[in-house]
Amino acid sequence: MKYEWKRQEKEFYGAKKSPTLVTVPVQNYIMISGKGNPNDSDFSNRVSALYSLAYAIKMAYKAAATQNEFDDFTVFPLEGIWQNIEETELVKENLEYTIMIRQPEFICKDMVKAALERVKLKKSNPLLDEISFDTMQDGKCVEILHIGTFDDEPISFEKMEQFMLSNNLERTKSYHREIYLNNANLVEKSKLKTILRYAVK
């Protein structure tokens, strides 16, 4: 049976267009950090390196799976955590981020390491050395499904802020999380779907 995040984990990927609360447990990720404008080539190169490893992990697992409950899995969507910028006007060149792709619980560090070595043998890419495997736990979060361009996200952030104010909540982390449910290179900008999250208490 194939593990499909859209089906098995609707509670984490089924955000609504109005703010709601969700509790996010510990999750495993492959991740890489960077700084600068996400429209620049360095960002897309980091995304590419991350996906090359993600698909190598998937294919290796599928090839080796025999008596496991799941014999394959769908690659999880790209995510990003973006640090708060203390500026009155957003300067994209100053953005700091970590982009990541979640891994199923049955993928361990040794599997990731082995897949990484295979990718390095096939294609030399210095960015591969910057990818790490780690866990994150955001815990209690306010989330919303933002539909539209990334530049319009402040509209959804304002809704989240109002929800927090109405429910006596405050942020606990200096970053927010974005989960990209479709491909910005393939979908019309007005139809992009992005889950936005603030960790709160």
TrEMBL record:
<dbReference type="InterPro" id="IPR011256">
    <property type="entry name" value="Reg_factor_effector_dom_sf"/>
</dbReference>
<dbReference type="Pfam" id="PF06445">
    <property type="entry name" value="GyrI-like"/>
</dbReference>
<protein>
    <submittedName>
        <fullName>Small molecule-binding protein</fullName>
    </submittedName>
</protein>
<dbReference type="InterPro" id="IPR008319">
    <property type="entry name" value="GyrI-like_CCH_Lin2189-like"/>
</dbReference>
<feature type="domain" description="GyrI-like small molecule binding">
    <location>
        <begin position="19"/>
        <end position="194"/>
    </location>
</feature>
<dbReference type="InterPro" id="IPR029442">
    <property type="entry name" value="GyrI-like"/>
</dbReference>
